[in-house]
Design brief:
The complex is a heterodimer of chains A (73) and B (907). Chain A is 66% helix and 0% strand. With 73 residues, chain A is mostly helical. Chain A has one domain. The longest helix of chain A is centred in the middle third of the chain and has 24 residues. The radius of gyration of chain A is 18 Å and the shape is elongated. Chain B is α+β, with helices and mostly antiparallel strands. Chain B has 2 domains: 565 residues, Up-down Bundle (Cytochrome C Oxidase, Chain A); 299 residues, Cupredoxins -  blue copper proteins (Immunoglobulin-like). Chain B is built from 21 helices and 22 strands. In chain B, helix 5 crosses helix 15, helix 11 runs antiparallel to helix 19 and helix 12 packs antiparallel against helix 19. The longest helix of chain B is centred in the middle third of the chain and has 37 residues. The chains are: A mainly alpha (73), B alpha+beta (907). At the A-B interface, helix 1 and helix 2 of A face helix 12, helix 13, helix 14, helix 16 and helix 19 of B.
């Protein structure tokens, strides 16, 4: 079966990259919101703040590297 | 892959391929003949022929059978959760609870077992077996080995349910343990609650099923390798095969320890072997945690399998993806100890496990990045949002959402706050529902048409299924996490009746109903597909094209995106892609290292304290705490002296050293403060542990539930940390305690003023649905004065779940008849008992426990703190018609719940 090669040009609209990115953001925001309760507590912060900050920074790195990465072409 | 790859599961598994034997053994011939006779007879019925694909090849038939069994167990397991939560909500709203305690706790146990093994594990085996056969073009062999797997696995589900008496009907021998059973709970001779031997046989049957299936797949891979070695060497296999192989390696590593742990329990129960509960738990959790990753490889494998097919381009970085498979396999077996952070294992070992638990973030991080980058550059018009893509998206997001709370739980000083709380279940259900189940459904939507030869009947039903699964799943997870943040324990059926808990329990209940309703859409669509779906043909299609066509039958608009393979030429060199991926991985490594360094002091502080190396503050109170099923016995010396059942009495602000031992089951001293440091240390039988903490500075009555499930009377197993005013402030009121919210401890019993307090016993043998009962606050003159309150245990509260009447019968009226026959007098002593810091408890008033009578309790009391009610445990033994025993199960114990604290302050 022959078929034309996949289009390479940048796509407008709701691309799967955008969809997966938005879902990742939603998941990250939801998770961090839950963790923030502990990190924001004066009692729990000592044991939890380091991990929470690490997670937030990792999420930042995830989206920075993801946006900078070349496309899968 | 060629179209021919699809043939084996569709047509080629009836022996036309490579024969195993020229003349099969007589047993195999007999089984084949019997199966054919039954199958052809059943196939005359359209229902069976269509549902079980009886006219198809044996590999397809068995796979379909496993899928159907998996869905069936999933449905039953879902209703188990529904039954448990119905009981929780009924108790919280003070409605009638229709299940017995054993049934309630069994339902949550069986929920876990049926969902994890009957559903998820079986579905994984069914789909992976089919994928391997199809992907490699293997002609399947050893039919009866695969049939044996099905029989063993589903038989194990029946065995794990335990015995049921049909006449007279009695199902109270269901196993009220945990799917994560903790030795010695349930082991005859070691525990007050002992399960039937069927439980242990069931676990062994499950292990046999998994190991046999692994062997079955390995044999096929070996044979394939022997036949294709020349062309296979140097070939780049589909990336998902790495994860299939990883699963095959992990299963024996996972289930092997379960065999050891189970055999040890069997030997202890029935052959007089010695037991080391802590060592047994360590071995068990080598299984318990690795299992999660065996199942988590479903969505991981699904993403690596489906996303490149749907995107019609290869994975972003093959080498990084393969590295993640290797890392998953290497790290998974090493993490079990992070379930035992609060037990007396060496601090270095828990620290090492914490470090390794952080390390397993790496393969997940690689996977999320690789999957996301794989779709980067895919035009919107070339991507179809069918059910396969939607569930893949959900499994991707769910894995991130659930995965991010993993490092939190793995951080030892954080785990102290959330250990065994519903926060853990929030993490766990985010992974299971939103990632594992979602991944399984993505695969099912992609494979089912290939399996059945029919396209999905309804895209609308598939979307409704997706929508309800998302809404229900997210609701469940958020409700669990909110309840966990409040400090609520997992597996608790009797919870403090406070608005916040009741609200989130209702929301949780709603989430369960929504997700169960959503699965009905899936079942309906599956049934309609096999009966009325359009014929699905893979003829002329490649494997990938067949998957896309199957997926397209769940799209709102079919045919919008072509399914044909297209040539793909790399334009972005590997070095560029891998440079970015390496940068991402390096970022994660740096951050993980920083978090590990930051968490290390706290981790060692926790570990050392449990092993007796706690803070070196001047100790004001020494407590020897002995955990039994189902109460603590506290023997104290220091500023308070004496022996108390279920009460730990200390002076405000004193440093307290607790030496913990236990028998019968692992227990946990937990005081779930939210305004000050949580106290949480486990007591494992045979392994002493220690806690050093400073008592709250505010006098009051703080709830201290047993933090570890220990059998069917777990709900009653709540003690009190009674914090007395300093000696020079005797007579101070509870005003400050109430003003500061009792340290935020949600388990604090409510405070009721005296006079006016009316205590009423409930069906669980508690006063006013609270354990301990409400704290009664009375005021008297400095020199003392009269205090009066009333209590009643209604006859209607007496039943099978009320431990106060030790009569077990299948007759539902037997308990009340016993009360009537004994003149409404149960004989147990109840009264008011003074806590004297110098000598302990001494009775002020005492009389027999009367039922269905309003008893006015009154005495002249001096300012101080008192216990009221039935302040010693009651022996309980469940044995209707002599049915209990080592063959069916034993449920005994010492239960205490009809008691509370009377706080007398100066006016």
């Amino acid at each position: 079966m022959s078929a034309p090669e996949l289009p390479r040009t940048a796509s407008r609209g709701f691309t799967p990259f955008l969809a997966f990115g938005l879902v990742a953001i939603a998941a990250a925001v939801g998770a961090v919101w839950e963790l923030a309760y502990y990190a924001g507590s004066s009692v729990f912060a000592a044991g939890t703040l380091g991990t929470t900050v690490g997670i937030v920074l990792a999420l930042g790195a995830f989206f920075v590297w993801g946006s900078r990465a070349p496309p899968n072409e | 892959m060629s179209a021919g790859d699809l043939r084996p599961s569709l047509t080629g598994a009836e022996g036309e391929g490579v024969p195993v034997f020229e003349h099969p053994p007589a047993l195999v011939q007999f089984l084949d003949a019997t199966e054919d006779a039954i199958r052809l007879r059943l196939a005359k019925l359209r229902l069976f022929e269509r549902v079980f694909l009886l006219q198809r090849d044996w590999m397809t038939r068995i796979t379909m059978l496993m899928v159907i069994c998996a869905v069936l167990w999933g449905a039953i397991g879902g209703f188990d959760a529904f039954g448990f939560q119905t009981s929780v909500v009924a108790y919280a709203t003070q409605s009638t609870v229709h299940l017995s305690n054993v049934e309630i706790y069994s339902s949550i146990t069986l929920h876990g077992i049926r969902e994890l093994f009957g559903f998820a594990q079986q579905l994984e085996m069914a789909l992976l077996g089919l994928l391997v056969v199809n992907a490699l073009g293997i002609v399947p062999r050893h039919k009866w080995s695969l049939y044996s797997v099905v029989v063993l696995l589903n038989g194990s589900m029946l065995l794990l349910q335990g015995p049921v008496y049909l006449l007279p009907f009695n199902d109270n021998y269901f196993p009220a343990l945990g799917w994560y059973f903790l030795s010695p709970l349930g082991v005859k001779g070691q525990s007050a609650y002992a399960v039937s031997p069927l439980w242990f046989i069931g676990w062994l049957a499950l292990c046999a099923a998994l190991l046999l299936w692994t062997g079955w797949v390995v044999v096929h891979l070996r044979d394939w390798w022997r036949q294709h070695r020349p062309e296979a060497v140097g070939r780049q296999f589909p990336i998902f095969l790495w994860f299939v192989v990883g699963t095959l390696i992990l299963i024996p590593i996972t289930y092997g320890p379960l065999v050891v742990s189970t055999v040890w329990d069997i030997g202890t129960a029935y052959a007089g072997w010695g037991i080391n509960a802590l060592a047994n738990q360590v071995i068990f959790w080598m299984f318990g945690h690795a299992l999660v990753y065996v199942l988590f490889l479903i969505p991981i494998l699904e993403l690596y399998f489906l996303i490149p097919i749907l995107a019609r381009r290869p994975i972003y970085s093959y080498r990084f993806a393969a590295a993640s498979a290797v890392l998953f396999v290497l790290l998974t077996p090493l993490l079990g100890l992070h379930h035992l952070y609060l037990t007396p294992v060496p601090a270095w070992s828990t620290w090492l496990t914490m470090a390794l638990s952080f390390a397993i973030v790496l393969p997940s991080a690689i996977t999320f990045f690789s999957v996301w980058m794989t779709v980067k550059g895919v035009p919107a018009g070339q991507w179809e949002w069918n059910a396969v893509a939607l569930f893949a998206l959900l499994s991707f997001g769910g894995a991130i959402f659930g995965g991010l709370s993993g490092p939190a739980l793995a951080t030892i000083p954080w785990d102290v706050d959330v250990h065994n709380s519903l926060f853990v279940l929030g993490h766990f259900h985010a992974i299971t529902i939103l990632s594992i189940v979602a991944g399984g459904y993505a695969l099912l939507y992609a494979i089912f048409p290939i399996l059945t030869g029919r396209q999905w009947f309804s895209a609308a039903l598939a979307r409704l299924h997706f929508l309800f699964t998302v809404v229900g799943g997210v609701t469940i997870v958020l409700a669990f996490e909110e309840l966990g943040a409040l400090g609520v324990l997992r597996r608790e059926f009797i919870l403090p009746i406070v608005p916040a808990i009741t609200l989130y329990q209702m929301i949780l209940y709603g989430g369960i109903i929504v997700i169960l309703a959503g699965q009905l859409f899936f079942v309906a669509n599956g049934a309609l597909t096999v009966f009325r779906g359009e014929v699905f043909s893979a003829s002329g299609l490649s494997f990938d094209e067949a998957v896309r066509r199957a997926a397209q039958s769940t799209a709102a608009v079919r045919g919008r995106v072509p399914i044909a393979d297209v040539p793909f030429t790399r334009r972005v060199p590997r070095s560029r892609r891998e440079r970015v991926e390496a940068g991402w991985v390096a970022s994660v490594v740096v951050l993980l290292t920083a978090v590990l360094v930051a968490s290390t002091p706290g981790a060692f502080a926790v570990g050392n304290a449990i092993n007796g190396g706690g803070p070196t503050e001047p100790i004001g109170e020494y407590v020897a705490l002995y955990g039994q099923q189902y109460y603590w016995s506290a023997t104290e010396s220091g500023s308070v002296n004496g022996t108390f059942d279920n009460a730990i009495v200390v002076e405000a602000g004193a440093w307290v050293q607790v030496n913990l031992t236990a028998s019968g089951a692992t227990q946990s001293l937990l005081v779930p403060f939210r305004d000050q440091a949580v106290v949480d240390v486990q007591a494992v039988p045979g392994s002493p542990s220690y806690a050093v903490f400073q008592a709250p500075s505010v006098p009051g009555v703080y709830g201290a539930p047993d933090g570890e499930y220990d059998g069917p009377w777990f709900g009653q197993d709540v003690s009190a940390l009674v914090v007395l005013p300093p000696a020079n402030a005797t007579g101070s009121s509870l005003a400050a305690f109430q003003a500061n919210g009792g340290g935020g401890d949600i388990y604090d019993p409510p405070v009721l003023p005296v006079p006016g307090a009316n205590l009423v016993g409930d069906a669980e043998g508690l006063f006013n649905n609270s354990v301990p009962g409400p704290t009664l606050a009375a005021t008297v003159p400095v020199g003392g004065g009269p205090v009066a309150f009333s209590w009643e245990v209604p006859l209607s509260s007496i039943g099978i779940d009320n431990y106060l009447v030790n009569v077990t019968s299948t007759n539902p009226n037997a308990q009340q008849q016993y009360v009537i026959d004994h003149g409404y007098n149960l004989g147990y002593p109840v009264g008011i008992y003074r806590i004297d810091p110098a000598t302990g408890l001494s009775p002020v008033t005492e009389g027999p426990l009367l039922v269905d009578r309003t008893v006015n309790e009154s005495a002249v009391l001096t300012p101080g703190v008192y216990l009221y009610g039935l302040v010693t445990p009651v022996a309980y033994s469940y044995n209707p018609s002599g049915e209990s025993g080592s063959g069916t199960g034993i449920q005994t114990g010492l239960v205490m719940g009809l008691w509370g604290i009377l706080w007398v302050s100066t006016a």
